[in-house]
Amino acid sequence: MLFPPPDTAVCERRDLIKAPYLIGYARVSKGDEQSNAAQRSALEAAGCKRIFEETASGGRWDRPKLLEMIGQLRDGDVVVVWKLDRLSRSLKDMLHIMERIEGAGAGFRSLTEAIDTTTAAGRMMMQMVGSFAEFERAMIRERTSAGLAQARIEGRIGGRRRKLGDKQRREVAESVISGRKSGAEMARLYGVSEPTVSRIVAAYRQQSENQALV
Question: Is the pTM for the entire model greater than 0.90?
Fold first, then answer.
């Protein structure tokens, strides 16, 4: 049986399809008992052609080897890590690093979590992670705003609890205004600064004046 000759154009297209260049990134923190050996073995088994090994804290994203690796990424490369926390222990920093990798036209894989941004499912997962991170930041901002608003209602500035209660503040103001005690004496007595005493006295006077006008 005769077979038709292969399509030359199809063969040429197949020749142009190359496997992505896999670049590994391994990290251990200073003082850790572990080494990069296990990570290196896993990355080599995954097919990484080059591995950048770092000994630095995962709490910062601007690590020497990490920046060197990102600077050498080319379109179509894939960064591979053994586990997500090897890339960063901070979700915010991890997403920033992922943006840098994506900006270089490269993909990302995590062997332990089976995340691969070169696939549609992997990209969707990272988008979900980013959405949750943004939701968390929004919730923090909302709680902070609510706390500051409540602090203003209670007469506290900046969300800090007042060191002196209403009764103590009244005693400070009345003692200074009546001349029984000086501002310095009341400051030492209640363990506050003299400027704090001055503000208490000024606020008490203003309150008294407002009440007299009513």
Answer: no
